[in-house]
Every structure is written in structure tokens, then in C-alpha cells.
Amino acid sequence: MMFTGVAICARRLADGIGELCFDRRDESVNKFDRTTIAELRQVLAAARADTTLRGLLITSAKEAFVVGADIGEFGALFALPEQELLASNAASNRVFNELEELPFPAVVAIDGFALGGGLEVALAADYRVASERAQLGLPEVKLGLIPGLGGTVRLPRIAGLATAVEWITSGAPVTATAAAKAGVVDDVFQPSVLRAAALELLHRAIESPTTWQARRAAKAAPVAGTVAERAGILAAARERVAARAPKHQPATALAIALLGTAAPRGRDDALSLEAATFARVARTQAADSLVQTFISDQIVKKRAKAAAAGAPAIERIAVLGAGIMGGGIAYASALRGIGVLLKDIQQSQLDLGLAEARKLLQKQVTSGRLDVERADRILASISPRQDFSGFDAAGIVIEAIVERLDTKRAVLRELEGVVQPTAVIASNTSSLRIDDLAAALARPQNLVGMHFFNPVPLMPLVEVVRGSQSSDAAVAAVVKLALAMGKTPIVVKDGPGFLVNRIITPYMLAFGRLLADGVDFVQIDAAMEAFGWPMGPAYLNDVVGMDTGMHVAATICAGFPERMRRTWKDPLAVMVAQRRLGQKTGIGFYRYSLDASGKPQKRVAEGSHALLEQLREHGACELSAAEIQERMMLPLLLEAARCLEEGVAASASELDMALLLGLGFPPYLGGALKYIDWLGAERVVELCERYAALGPLYEPPQSLRRGARKFYSRA
Ligand code: NAD
Questions:
Q1: Residue 709: what pLDDT?
Q2: How far is it, in rounded angstroms, from Cα 141 to Cα 130?
């Protein structure tokens, strides 16, 4: 039994034992793909044919056992007609069954990750031992899928229904110790002795055939437990999932239903049921989108790494402005070990910024994520000041002062005189053009936009804005800093609103137009939240702050006067005139207060409806949720297509990731461009024609008119 393939090597050890080792050539990790399955089939056939073999040891030569399926293959696989998808799945399952039916026992040694297909292959063996650092799990639901290589069949038969339901619906990895407690692995060892321990277990198994044969019988039979016990477990799971499952992602609910239906059946029936559910779930919009998002996330990470190449390491930065954003930036940097000089013109703001950082650090200490000493050190690494002392040594300065062009220009000019000629200046402006700021500078090549989102410690996205004169070195330095802060940087082209704020602006204009047409804001929020947004547009305006939203929208609309033209009254202006600024004043569209137990409460604010009636052009109007959703989403989708056409983002993946991370764009849609692909350009143009009377916000750009082309191609 000798085999050397691309993904698997096999050899013969002493005493009639064979070893099958996952060892993907030229890659750092083992994945389950077509090649791996084909090689597994070959090795198992050879093992079965070898009448002198008495046991099989399964190992990995990498740090991790097998990290899961090769997600890059999913696009082409899921595009197959249903019957072909089922046939492909059945063929893979036969290989796993062959492992389970070998004429001798098999033991798997798991070090590092055994996820998805990696765990499923281990479940097909008779025994599993794991190293202390191993992590096991079935993360398929995170991609909108269910396990499709026998995971839903073998896990409940090995560890019981409750464990299977928990692992499969959460998708979370589990430590080796927890897996042993759940009965998924037989024992846990230190990594250095794992292989020897697995071999020893295999020898013992060879001596006691009735034990492994009994295990196999249990894996072929119905799931243990009475009908009532199973019903109880499934009902509790349904309730839990109904409360926490993301909107429009049916995978968890389908997995629970499948586990219930398959539990009283034998292995082979259960495998057929799993395959049918897998084929169904693989065709959902959520799976299609989440798989693309996984791939896009990797593309974005790769691009960021490439963009940061060559930039020097960052140990210390300077931040100008200690307000909401500057304070957040200082805290997030310090938390990652980057020292911060924090300057503001007001001592009170510096005090406030540090107090906020202290509060956030205290929270981390209370939750056990940080010890007190470390928290103190982090806080001490932010050094506040009202002058520029120390700025001459800073390699990067982030500017986060008030959003006024004249003030920013004056301050940036002054800053340029203080810092080294090579120092990079990153402006956190949310709506001013980098080129307009650069015009005031002697060294415009050193200026780059670094657009964080609020609240900085929580929001992962940073738009790195390349002005027309920004140097590659300056962009690299800012991308490197964003990465060092643990953020996801996406490089975008300079222009009004950059990428994310530009794309959301037509959506907000559509909201204003709906109000002017007499639609109730509560109905609009309900329709958009049902569609999958974390909050409706009225609520979002309250959270952002009406004055901020109005200011940003005005700047962006001025940049695209031909399209982002308002011929109706601005609802935000009406609110601002009444000092109803949203959450920060306790009242906007909604009223924010604390209930008797101190929990924040939101209800429709008194007077909101009366105020908004002033905007109406023809009295009240009732629209269906679908029409509201179409009228809100179309302008956003069209703007996204335009941004890609104009090269504001370099690729569909980067554009959609920015929307997912920056806006909380509904994950099951996978971003604006992915959603257009799902609908089809023809359908989008058709919708544009239906709403053409609403004006230029609903005019499709050239790239969509030409039809047919998809933003994402299937591999
Ligand atoms: P803020 O009003 O909370 O803070 C601005 C701070 O700058 C104040 O503390 C002020 O004292 C200080 N300041 C003013 N002039 C200064 C100077 N010459 N030197 C040093 N400090 C000075 O504002 P913010 O919300 O933190 O916004 C700051 C920047 O971040 C703006 O450009 C804004 O557009 C941008 N931004 C804000 C958000 C948001 O949601 N708040 C999101 C993204 C970007």
C-alpha cells in the first residue's frame, strides 16, 4: 500500500498497519476537493485489496488536519443541474462509506483544525484522537450550507442528537477537550505524542474486533433516544434558531428539519436525505452569496497585503482631534500595541477621549479579555497634548478634526510644517475630497484618505482613499497601519463620498422621496428590516445623527447634481430645524429612553408623523413592502454598478465587501453587485423602466443596459 498523490500519501508501517496521510503538495493546508476525494478513493481501494493489512492510521503532515472543503470549487459545483449535483455528492459519499466499511479498524489523529469535510472524514473512521490544540467543527451554516459529506448522519449517531444539533446549527469550532466530553473524540493528547497514541489505540482496536464492529453498527442504525427525547431536543433548537438565525438564511432551520427526519432512519437513508437537503440549500440565494463573500474576503485580504508591501513597520502614530473618531482611533491603535500621540485644541476633549478609552479598557478587564496591568499599559500608551510636541518623529499622522474644508486645509498646512518631509498624513474626512485637501499642501503626494466608520473599535472597514496625487508609498503606509489596527482596508478612488457613503446616498434620497409621496416611515423601516437590513432608513438616520447625515448627503449630492437631485423637501432638514437630531438628542424619527429596568427603548416619537405630513405632496399613500423595497434598493444598486464602472473600487469583490462591512448590508444578498447578479441585469433594467417616472436615480448605467454580463464569474 504505497501511494504518492497531490493531496494524500500512503505507506505501510510495521505490523500490517497502513498510514494514510493528508499532505497537500505545494500548499500550506489540506482541503477537501475533487482531487482529494479521488485520491482517497484510490488509496482505500488499494487498502481493501491488500489482504495483509490489519488497520489504518489516518494523519496529516500539516499543522492542521484538514481545514474543510475547497470553497473555490463550490461555484461550479452548485451551478450543476440538481441531478448532477446529487450524483456528485453520492459519489463522494460512497468514498466515505468505503472508509467506514474497511475490513479492519481505522483511527484518525487530529492535530489543529478538522473542519467541515475534515471532520466528516474523521467521523467515518472508527476512532478519533485529538491533540490538545485541535479544533473540530462543522462550519457549513456560516456559508449558508449544511454538511454534505455525512456530517449530519454520523455526528448524531456518534455523539447524540443534542450535540449534533448544537455543532451543526452554530457552525462554531469546538476545542479538543469539549469534543472529548461530547464523545466526538475518544481521547486527547499532547501534540508530541498524538501519533504514537493513535497507533497504540489502533493496535488495541485490532485486538478487539467486536468493539469497533459494535461502533460501526451504531453508526449504521437510527440515532439513539426515544421519539419524545428527540422531539424535545429539536423543538428547543428550533426555538433557539428562530431567535438568532440571520434573516433569509434558511440553512440552520433546514438542518434541524433534516436531523429530525433522518434520525429514525438507517445510515444510507439518512445519507440520501442529507444529499437532497444539501442540493436544495446549495441553490439558495444565501448560500450563493455567502460562498462568494468568503471568496471575496480572501481576495480583499490578499490585495491589502499586496498594497501594504514594502511599507515600514508602525510602532507609533499621531492623531489630530480627540473627538468621537479621533478618540476611537487612538483607543483602537493602542489596543493593538501602537503608541499614540493625541492632540486636540480643547483639554476637555482630550479628557473625554481618554475617559472613553478607560471605559472600554475596563470593559475588557471585566470580561476577562485583558488583565489590569496590560490595560493600564495600553492606556498609558496614549499620550495626550495640546501642542505638536513629538509630531516631528511621527511617521504617520491621522487627522480627525471637524469636517470643514477651510479648517482642515489650514490645520493640514500647519501640520505639514511640523512633521518630517516623509511623514504620511491620513485624513479621516467622510465627505471632503482628498484632492481638495491636497490642494493646500506642499507635499500632496503624502496625503491619503483613511476613512474609518463609527464606532471605530467595532467597525472593521477602513476606506483607504487614493487621491490623484497620493504616492504608492503613502497608500502602502496607510494600508499597513489599518492592518496593524486589525481593520480591513479597501483602497478606493477619491471622489464625493468615496465608495460606501456615495452608494448609500441614493438609498437615503429614495427614502426622502417615499416620505414625500406619503408613505409612513414606520412602514418603510419595517419593510427594509424585513428585507434584511439591521435597521430601516429612519432608524439609521437617528443613529448617524440627522445633522451629520444631512451634511454628508449635501456634499455628495453636490458632486453628482445630474443624478442626486432632490425635487422634494428634505426630511432631515425638517428634523434638524426642530433639533430632533436622533439618538444623540434622544429624539429624531423615534424617541429614545430607558425603561424601568434601565434598558434602552425606542418608540415612534411624538410629533414625527405630524412633522412629516408637511413634506407630503399628495397626502398619505400605502405601498406594498415589495414596492418599498424595490424603490429603496434600486438607486443603491445602480450607484454601486456606476462606482465599479468608474473604478472607485478596483473589483466587485472589494466593492461588495465594503458594503457588507461598512453598512451592514444584508449578508444573504452578498453585496449590491452580487445581488444584481442574482436578479440578472435584464430584471434590474426592467425594474428601472417601471420606476422611470421617479427620475434620474432610477436610470440604469451603461454597464447594466448592455445586459448579460455578470459581475462575478463562476470558476
Ligand atoms: P468631533 O466633533 O467629535 O471631533 C472633532 C475634534 O477635533 C474635536 O475634539 C475638536 O476639539 C478637535 N479639533 C478641532 N480643531 C482642531 C485642531 N485644529 N487641532 C486639533 N483638534 C482639533 O468630530 P468626529 O465625529 O470625531 O469627526 C472627526 C472627523 O471624522 C470628521 O472629518 C468627520 O467627518 C470624520 N468622520 C466622522 C464619522 C462619524 O460618524 N462621527 C465617521 C467617519 C468619519
A1: 75
A2: 24
Taking each helix axis as running N to C, give the angle between helix 34-49 and helix 82-100, from 0 to 180 degrees, rounded to the nearest 10: 40
Spatial separation of the C-alpha atoms in residues 267 and 279, rounded to whole Å: 18
Which range, of 136-145, 350-359, 460-469, 473-482, averages the lowest pLDDT?
Answer: 350-359
Task: Please write the tens of the pLDDT for every residue from 51-101.
Answer: 999 999 999 999 999 999 999 899 888 888 989 999 999 999 999 999 999
Ligand 1 neighbour 630 (Cβ under 6 A): no
Confirm if 78 and 283 have CB atoms less than 8 A apart: yes
Phi, psi of 384 (to 5 degrees): -80, 150
- Selecting among 203, 451, 551, 609, the annotated active-site residue is 451
CA dist 517 and 594 (Å) reads: 33
Q: pLDDT value at position 702?
A: 87
Report the pLDDT value the prediction gives residue 708, as an integer from 0 to 100: 63
* Distance between CA atoms of residues 677 and 701, nearest Å: 15
What distances in angstroms separate CA 84 from CA 72, 79, 91, 314, 595, one per listed residue? Answer: 18, 10, 10, 52, 56
Rounded distance between C-alpha atoms, residue 40 and residue 8, angstroms: 7
Mean pLDDT of 344-353: 96
Residue 325 CB less than 6 A away from ligand 1: yes
Active site residue 451: yes
Q: Please state the rounded mean pLDDT for residues 157-163.
A: 98
| Torsion sign, CA atoms 507, 508, 513, 519 | positive
pLDDT single digits (tens) 279-296? 999 999 999 999 999 999
Strand 187-189 relative to strand 174-175, pairing: unpaired
Sheet bearing 135-137, strands edge to edge? 113-115, 135-137, 174-175
Vertex 116, ends 36 and 85: CA angle to 5°?
Answer: 65
- The reported pLDDT for the residue numbered 705 is 86
pTM, full prediction: 0.94
How far is the C-alpha of 627 from the C-alpha of 636, rounded, in Å? 15
Which residues 6+ apart lie within 8 Å of 172 measured at CB?
A: 137, 139
Residue to mutate, 402, 434, 462, 663, ligand 1, most ligand atoms under 8 Å from C-beta: 402
User: Is the confidence at residue 666, as pLDDT, over 80?
Assistant: yes
Q: What is the DSSP string of 525-583?
A: HHHHHHHT-SS-HHHHHHHH-HHHHHHHHHHHHHH-TTTS---S--HHHHHHHTT--BG
Report whether 110 contacts 88 (CB < 8 A): no
Cα 349 to Cα 318, 357, 575, distances in angstroms: 16, 12, 27
Q: From the CB of 660, is ligand 1 less than 6 Å away?
A: no
Cβ-based neighbours of 283, under 8 Å, separated by 6 or more: 78, 82
Q: Which atom belonging to ligand 1 lies closest to the Cα atom of 322?
A: 9
For residue 311, the 8-state DSSP code is P
**C-alpha to C-alpha distance for 2 and 501, rounded to whole angstroms:** 59
Q: Which residue(s) pair with 397 in the sheet?
A: 318, 425
Minimal CA–CA distance to 509: which of 571, 562, 551? 571
Query: Does the pLDDT at position 715 exceed 60?
Result: no
Residue 346 Cβ < 6 Å to ligand 1: yes
Q: What is the mean pLDDT of the chain?
A: 96
**Apex 449 CA angle, 445 and 451, nearest 5:** 170
Residue from 337, 320, 303, 627 nearest 492 by CA: 303
Measured distance CA(247)–CA(425) in Å, rounded:
41
Task: Report the pLDDT value the prediction gives residue 157, as an integer from 0 to 100.
Answer: 98
What is the reported pLDDT for 244?
86
